[in-house]
Write a structure and sequence with these properties.
binds magnesium ion, six-stranded mixed β-sheet, binds adenosine-5'-triphosphate, 2 domains, Rossmann fold, 39% helix
């Protein structure tokens, strides 16, 4: 479904991704893990059109998307739920969700989709008229996920949804990701919470200093000595 081949990316003349390859098949739940500054967010930004990759190719459902505009990529069914939520703080919860429905095929069914999103996140329905800035961190993450779902994606790339949240809320968010996957949404999840992530994803890639380091089935990676020492602390 998503195929990234030989992707490089730079900020000015500082290169941060080198020849990165990653594949996500339809229906998979794939994780991308790595330390701070490894280049995970840069990779998602280069895929979703937020930044232009230097070289390499990105294909989504048979379309070359590297260099395409973000809205064109969302229209194809690839939704990017960015790092640190980035909700519109001065807009209400309902308005934030409506903003997510801007691709024309999603706009027509926005009312039904919003009902589904409220089914997944009852707390957003209770707070539909409130400004997003009045939400807790966990609720803002739910809003960011809900806004991403409003575009009727086939695949979601989700950047560190657990960041800054209390353990109980993290578990709740991970349960929601599992249920989205069960409903048929293909997922690429970026996380630093490696233990919980390897427990819910099918496969994972480890990115180190902008390079592919390891990849494989999560159960195998969780057993690998390198992953245990570097990311699981034992
Ligand atoms: N806008 C930017 N301008 C210049 N350098 C940047 C910019 N954004 C990121 N970088 C640099 O690129 C490298 C990769 O950053 P990136 O944000 O992709 O890492 P990350 O793996 O997402 O890290 P984290 O886990 O902390 O979110 C880092 O060295 C970072 O300092
Ligand atoms: Mg990041």
């Amino acid at each position: 479904m998503l195929e990234i081949n030989g992707l490089s990316a730079s900020y000015g003349n500082v290169q941060v991704l080198w020849d990165v390859c990653l594949r996500v098949d339809e229906g998979e739940f794939v994780a991308l893990v790595g330390a701070n500054g490894a280049g995970k967010t840069t990779l998602l930004n280069a895929v979703s059109g937020v930044m232009k990759p230097g070289s390499g190719s990105v294909t989504f459902m048979g379309h070359r998307i590297d260099g395409s505009a973000p809205n064109a990529i969302v229209n194809l069914g690839l939704s990017h739920i960015p790092e640190s939520r980035q909700v519109f703080t001065e807009m209400s919860v309902r308005e934030n969700l409506e903003m997510g429905a801007y691709p024309s095929r999603a706009w027509k069914s926005r009312r039904e989709t919003m009902k589904k999103v409220f089914g997944l996140f009852p707390r957003l329905e209770e707070r539909a008229g409130q400004l997003a800035r009045s939400l807790s961190g966990g609720e803002q993450q739910m809003l960011a996920l809900g806004r991403g779902l409003m575009s009727l994606p086939k695949m979601c790339m989700i950047d560190e949804p657990s960041n800054g949240l209390a353990p109980l809320i993290v578990t709740e968010i991970f349960e929601i990701l599992k249920s989205l996957h069960k409903e048929g949404i293909t997922i690429l999840l970026v996380e630093q919470n490696v233990r919980q992530t390897l427990a819910i994803a099918d496969r994972a890639y480890v990115l180190e200093n902008g390079h592919n380091a390891l990849d494989g089935a999560c159960c195998d990676l969780a057993e690998s000595e390198h992953v245990r020492k570097a990311y699981l602390g034992h």
